[in-house]
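queue> pop job 88
queue> type: inverse folding (structure -> sequence)
queue> payload:
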């Protein structure tokens, strides 16, 4: 996950390298400002987008995609949800993990 986050930053820097050489002047004009490329919010957004892509890929590979229904919080509310698995396979997997955790706790792990 660290690499996925960094990869978004790396790709942005490689794509906008010529714009990041100074505060003024870029390939679109010698007197054009580069403020929007220096804005740290842009860098963070690109890193987050790369992380979302990587998480989506991981979920597909682990067969957990679409296990939980997508929920969108209502405006002005805290996004706290009571998630329930969409299929019984996920429930069985959760029960199996709980059994393993219980056994580990009994032996002191």
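queue> result:
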């Amino acid at each position: 996950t660290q690499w996925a986050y960094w990869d978004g930053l790396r790709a942005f820097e490689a794509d906008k390298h010529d714009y990041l050489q100074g505060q003024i002047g870029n390939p679109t004009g010698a007197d054009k400002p580069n403020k929007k490329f220096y804005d740290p919010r842009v860098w963070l957004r690109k890193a987050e987008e790369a992380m979302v892509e990587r998480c989506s890929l991981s979920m597909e590979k682990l067969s957990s995609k679409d296990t939980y229904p997508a929920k969108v919080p209502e405006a002005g509310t805290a996004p706290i949800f009571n998630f329930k698995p969409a299929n019984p396979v996920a429930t069985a997997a959760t029960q199996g993990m709980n059994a393993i955790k219980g056994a580990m706790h009994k032996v002191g792990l």
